[in-house]
Amino acid sequence: MKKLLAMLLALGLLALCACTSTTTTKAPETTTESTSEETNQTEQTGTEEPADAAEPADAAEEPAEDAAEPDDRVKPLPDAIDVTALTDASVAASFDERAIEETDGKTYLTLQVYDYDRYDMVDISNLADGSVIVAGGKDMTVSSVERDGSLVLINGGLTKGGMTLTTQDDGVYYELGVNDVKCYQEKGEVTLPLSAGFMLTDDSDPDHPNQTYGAEKLSELVSSGFTTNNTLVTIENGEITAITRTVAP
Predict the structure, then answer these.
(1) What is the pLDDT of residue 69?
(2) Residues in Cβ contact with 93 at an 8 Å cutoff, skipping those fewer than 6 apart
(3) What pLDDT is attached to residue 42?
(4) Per-residue CA distances from 122 to 103, 172, 173, 177 (Å)
(5) In CA terms, which of 60, 105, 126, 172 is 20 to 30 Å from 182?
(6) Dihedral of CA 120/122/124/127: which sign?
(7) Contacts of 216-219 spanning 24+ positions with Cβ under 8 A
(8) Tens-digit pLDDT profile for residues 131-166
(9) Per 3-state DSSP, what percentage of the chain is helix, strand, and coil (rounded to 5)?
């Protein structure tokens, strides 16, 4: 009986040992996180605001506009008359039947006024090959200059397609046209009254020169022609005091 108890006790101990056999508990793996920050941490490379660009030096002052090149052309002297202010002058003029008008007992005359280019004597004396002269508003390049007394022939003169100048020894030259008349250019139109003492002197008929008339005769004579090359009008204090008509060239 004692043997049986002893065997049962031994079996119980064995079972107990089997149940309570210790198992080795595996320690959990510890992930060792690096606590040190990366030594070569990438530095932010955010775009650094550029330092304000240095203000440009004061912009160089714009160069002054090139001075206008000197005008070496030989140009006419300023106009001798001002059509907008004809108060006292003697002018070449033309008019026709339509130009005469009677208003309030006074006779008015509408004139086409003309003048010609005048050149300084010094400028003409300095003309040479290559010079440029302005005539009638147009440039003419000088290729030759011939002088014959009071005449100056530029590029062969008028008959050869150039121009002929002359002087009356008064310090100026002027251009000659066909029949040696002045080269007149129209300057404008003006309407003026005839003065109370108006006088027309008519030398247009070589057989009967120096004919004189008053204003009442003007309308009868106008049809026979008052042109630039034969009519000189004298103006005083804004009124026409005299007209002289010569033989037309």
Answers:
(1) 66
(2) 111, 112, 113, 114, 226, 228, 231, 232, 233
(3) 45
(4) 49, 9, 10, 22
(5) 126
(6) negative
(7) 218/100, 218/107, 218/109, 218/194, 218/243, 219/97, 219/100
(8) 999 998 999 999 999 999 999 999 999 999 999 999
(9) 20, 35, 45
